[in-house]
Amino acid sequence: MTALEAVAVHLPPHAVPIEAVGERIGLTPRQLKLFRRFHGLDQLRLDPDGTLPDLLDAAVDNLTELHGRERHVRFVIHARSMPVAVPYPLNPLHDLIARRGLAHANAFTVTHHACAVGLLAIDLAGRLLAGDPDPQALALVVAGEKTFTRDAQVVPETGVFAEGAAACLVRATGERHRVLSFSVRQRPEFDGRLAEDPDLLARYQREYPAVLTEAIEAALEQAGLDLSDLAAVLPHNVNQASWRMLARRIGLPVEKVLLDNVPSVGHSFAADSLINLHTATTRGLLRRGDRYLIAAAGIGATFSAMTVQC
What we know:
Peroxisomal Thiolase, Chain A, domain 1, five-stranded mixed beta sheet
């Protein structure tokens, strides 16, 4: 059973008010008021002078459990929301493994699930490791991206992106943080530029709660769990309002949803789930044996949920 052995996070020290970001990318005062007052956004962690390799390298550097075990890493997977992150022929992932003594590992990127791709990467890592006879075999999953274009900075009426990064060690089996289920619901009819298609945006916002609920309920059913069995829900950090509405919709106490990173960190692409897991574990919010659920939605549209036992 796939297990998450260790998680590390890098949050750029530079905290930028959403108004400063909005001024740079041309958001209106009404849009900024919506983000702050309704969606609960405040500031974003950004690294204006850093590169994508800098972000990923900093997260891996904080993953102390990897140090001295590099030879056991079979796969390095970059969970990337954006289909293209750097111009050809640059390859940040291969640069990363060369610097980290991981050139022997199979390295690749998974994408096309947008901001839900982090859960796909974890599931894929576990499936790949299941075929390795070495019980010490590991996969390294990294997540984190740069807000290098306007499209990579904002989702209309929904959220603003940040530049947090995370790294995770995955094993085929383990006693802690064992993956119990993983569900995905995809709605390709919502693929398009929401900023330029108000009708598509409206339909996506209308369908969003129902489809995410469907993914969550499917993951719970696969694991044989009910909402009442969950100690916590770790969301993607798109905004607070959508999660409060979803919690009311499905009958989940909102205090079980870890929303603290929404105003203080921001939505860090596919890294949100690992950033929130790191927060939950370092704060002692999860005890041994607790079951928790990670949920995410990605433009395009993909809705995913994963249940895990601590």
